[in-house]
Amino acid sequence: xxxxxxxxxxxxxxxxxxxxxxxxxxxxxxxxxxxxxxxxxxxxxxxxxxxxxxxxxxxxxxxxxxxxxxxxxxxxxxxxxxxxxxxxxxxxxxxxxxxxxxxxxxxxxxxxxxxxxxxxxxxxxxxxxxxxxxxxxxxxxxxxxxxxxxx
Length: 151
Fold this sequence. Notes:
This protein is mostly helical. The protein has a single domain, classed as 3-Layer(aba) Sandwich (Hexokinase, domain 1). The chain is built from eight helices and no strands. It comes from Oppiella nova.
């Protein structure tokens, strides 16, 4: 059970936002984001949520970025900051979906049945605008060709 919990930390809704926060903190510490300025809010665990990540992936309007920047203690952000945050959210989303797809495609390949149905629940899967598509595309890519008819 401990192994599954640790694995869930790599893609679960409770943790995705904090993975984004940690990447953004590292970028800021290296002077690649927010002109190297680091706020207490950016250092605070869970100050970025999976909802923030989903909002950014859904709507790339300045309002979304402005709201996040203010919550993180920044008065303003540059277009480079905006593009960087957007890119980090996309990469973390892709990474999470790929990790799930790797496990699911392995399970599908091992199940000795003509068809397989997968039931998935959770806030990331329900509310992230791209997660379903990413997971299904990655599963098709990772499945051996002879297993495609199962999925």
